[in-house]
Amino acid sequence: MDYALQTRNLAKNFGGFTATNNVSLNVEAGARHALIGPNGAGKTTLINLLTGFLEPTAGHVILQGEDVTRLGQHQRVKRGLARTFQINRLFADLTVLESVTMAVNERLGLGARFWKPVGAHGQAVEEAVALLDSLRLLDVAHEKTRSLAYGKQRLIEIALALAMKPRVLLLDEPAAGVPTTESRELFESIAALPRDVTILLIEHDMDLVFRFADRISVLVGGALLTHGTPEVIANDPKVREVYLGEAICA
Amino acid sequence: MSLATFDLTPLRRADRWHPAELAFWLLPVAAYLVFPDNLVLLTQIAITALFCLSLDLILGYAGIVSLGHAAFFGFGAYAAGLLAANGIGDPLAGLAVAALASAALGFVTSFLVLRGSDLTRLMVTLGIAMMLYEVANKLTDLTGGVDGLQGIEMTPLLGRFTFDLYGKTAYWYAVAVLFLLFWAARKLVHSPFGLSLKGIRLNVARMPAIGAPVNARLSAIYTIGAAYAGIAGALLAQTTQFVALDVLSFNRSAELMLILVLGGSGSLYGAVIGAIVFMSAHHVLSDMNPEYWQFWLGALLVVVVLFARDGVMGGLRRLSHAAGGLRKGAR
Amino acid sequence: MTVLFDGVASGMLLFLISVGLSVTLGLMNFVNLAHGAFAMVGGYLCVLLLNRVGVPFLAALPLAAGLTALVGVVLERTLYRRLYTATHLDQVLFSIGLVFMSIAAAQFLFGAQQQPLTLPDFLRGQISLPGLDMGAYRLFLILLSLVIAFGLQRLVGGTRFGAELRASVDNPRAARGVGINVERVFTLTFALGTALAGLGGALGVEMLGLDPGFPVKYIVYFLIVVAVGGSGNITGSLVASLILGVLDVAGKYYVPQIGAFVIYAVMVVMLIFRPQGLFGRRAAR
């Protein structure tokens, strides 16, 4: 089996508190993999360990067969791992096109060019424009990020990650805070992403998870409880007990 | 909107020279004609503008706060001064040496400055500048200590233009260096590198996630800023043929902050305009009474922080917005 | 031994002045570079009260502290409070502005010269023990500072006011929710900090001297205390002040050539390796 992203016995302690407990996660190449779990299950900590924002106490992170445990965030990005953030981390005073062009520049290794203007680096600009077109953001390309509606800003989160041409894309609650009407459109955009991009999705909305994912892992108390196809997970009594129960009752 | 009809002009034209900019750079010529007796002051303004430009690069664009930027100014001044006092009086060689020396200092200290929060940065930069001040103060054999560094002899610029008593050569020399370095800085801030600096200032936490090496970029701009400051210091040493200990002082760093805040940071022109306004006000007011000058300087700083945080440039932008609104309204 | 004693005395003085800064910086998260200016105000008030009004020294001290606190409260109410949520850079610029104004005002009102101060007789003598000469004034300073340090520790750590202060800092909104008057707490804290600065300034005239350059001359020392002691930490400030005082006096005594260089170097090294201070309560995040 070909895995895009794996962890082996990954653990993270904060002082005496174990946020991630011996997690061995396997994400198949091309999968639409969802990571679910109740609040405080350690989902965000796990993402931070995967992306290199945090260093693990023990264990390994393996990206497309390569051990990247010791690499920094931007080095993992260069190797094809991109992410979005649960809370927008955008560039309020840049235009949408500038933001995305900046991201493309970094991927193409143009970020340290200090002489010719941004607009003269044609390949980067064209690529950014094409990306915005594919996310239907062209008509706001010259708007300042801060002036956009929240749903549009969430799309820019994704555009910045896609500008990395990732092999593996981590989506941290992409629909958080987006009104239902806009979230459908958002997920259409996500569903339309090319199949060769592996996606690991963290999401609270069970409807969305079961519609979108072909593989689900359940995290409880920092440890993996179980994993499987959506049908298996939906019928797993353990999962119903710790997680789905509350969601279904609600 | 479709891909075919998408208009790229706003991005492509972002770096074109606005007519107002061209007019702005005629000011040095106009000043030369209108105030031929104040060339010394005008030279000081150009030097201060260059110094302030260096702070704008690191603070206004990359968001690195510093309370000790005079360290690089002073280091460059002493480097150029010592070179000239020891027999190598060529001005351009002096600039090059000062730029390299300050850049080296900036590069080394960047690793100390870049870690930690804004507060740590403020205090570390302050501490480094104070250390240099103490060193210069104690190495009296080399620097002259509180008496200042004397005996600076400059050879003619490019072998042709002697530094004259009226300061004509000094003025055009300073203005030319300022313009060239301004032009280079302008290229830099419109480049992908400059864009990534803005990205770092606006959201440093996102930058690693788009694959940008944040510390390397900050280190680079800090080094460039230091080189600019060093060149400004060298210009001061060469045009006044003297280096006073206060090139490294806390007051100089603090005043520089004020000038940038006054002009407005993050636009390059704010740095130059701030220097013009500040130095002219200094000239006029301190003729009346040097103590009053410091008082009003402080009061100005308080007022600017409380009520006009974006400085002269911000005021100009608001004005032009208002004017634009009026024109639209008229149509 | 005498060097050590003098070092401890100057460290105690440093503590008195710096602890107020430590409180505003650490507990209220305000970078107040004008702290030295409040100390200077206390110094001038004390000199005025003694020399012009004829108030006895021991009465002039609390008066100077109280009047400085009054100045502090007025400024806090009118200016400082607008900047509690501003960036550190803005706070720094603002307080540098105040420093410049205070220097110019002091120069205008009192001139550039050092201010004379005559101590009462009972504080002027020497107490000689075998191997140790103790200046009476320095002994007085040490004892007074110890009392104040102890009182402060009790105030912040063990009283209702201290609890309210910590709550107001940690989460102003929640503190308001449970009925704490956050504005009043901040004003009182600021007043306390400036009162201590004023008292320290008054006590320091004898040892540090007093001229209009005071706020700039010593601000680095105060910052070092806060950096080394960990901001908001009273015991930390005390220990840091003592170390700094002893180092400074010993340095000037034994190796005058290197001057203040060591002190600055210590600050930079400290900030780089222990940004939360030697006695920092929480790890850097």
Fold and architecture overview:
The complex is a heterotrimer of chains A (250), B (331) and C (285). Chain A is an alpha/beta fold. Chain A is built from 9 helices and 11 strands. The model of chain A has no long low-confidence stretch (mean pLDDT 86). The longest helix of chain B is centred in the C-terminal third of the chain and has 27 residues, at 214-240. Helices cover 72% and strands 0% of the residues of chain B. With 285 residues, chain C is an all-alpha fold. The radius of gyration of chain C is 19 Å and the shape is globular. Chains in contact: A-B, B-C. The A-B interface holds A 51-53, 72-74, 77-78, 82-83, 85, 89-95, 97-99, 101-103, 105-107, 110-121, 124-125, 129-130, 133, 138-139, 141-142, 160-161, 163-164 and B 1-3, 6, 8, 10-15, 187-188, 190-196, 198-199, 202-203, 205-214, 216-217, 220.
Write the layout of secondary structure elements.
The complex is a heterotrimer of chains A (250), B (331) and C (285).
Chain A: E1 3-14, E2 17-23, E3 26-28, E4 32-36, H1 43-51, E5 58-63, E6 66-67, H2 73-78, E7 81-83, H3 96-108, H4 122-134, H5 150-162, E8 168-172, H6 180-191, E9 198-202, H7 206-212, E10 215-220, E11 223-228, H8 230-235, H9 237-249
Parallel strand pairs in A: 4-9, 4-10, 7-8, 8-9
Antiparallel strand pairs in A: 1-2, 1-3, 1-5, 5-6, 10-11
Chain B: H1 9-12, H2 19-24, H3 27-34, H4 39-61, H5 70-85, H6 91-113, H7 118-138, H8 140-143, H9 168-190, H10 192-202, H11 214-240, H12 250-263, H13 269-288, H14 290-307, H15 311-330
Helix pairs in contact in B: 4-9, 4-11, 4-12, 4-13, 5-6, 5-7, 5-11, 6-11, 9-11, 10-11, 12-13, 12-15, 13-14
Chain C: H1 2-26, H2 35-53, H3 57-78, H4 88-110, E1 126-129, E2 132-135, H5 136-158, H6 160-170, H7 172-177, H8 182-208, H9 214-229, H10 234-254, H11 261-273
Antiparallel strand pairs in C: 1-2
Helix pairs in contact in C: 1-5, 1-8, 1-9, 1-10, 2-3, 2-4, 2-8, 2-9, 3-8, 5-6, 6-8, 9-10, 9-11
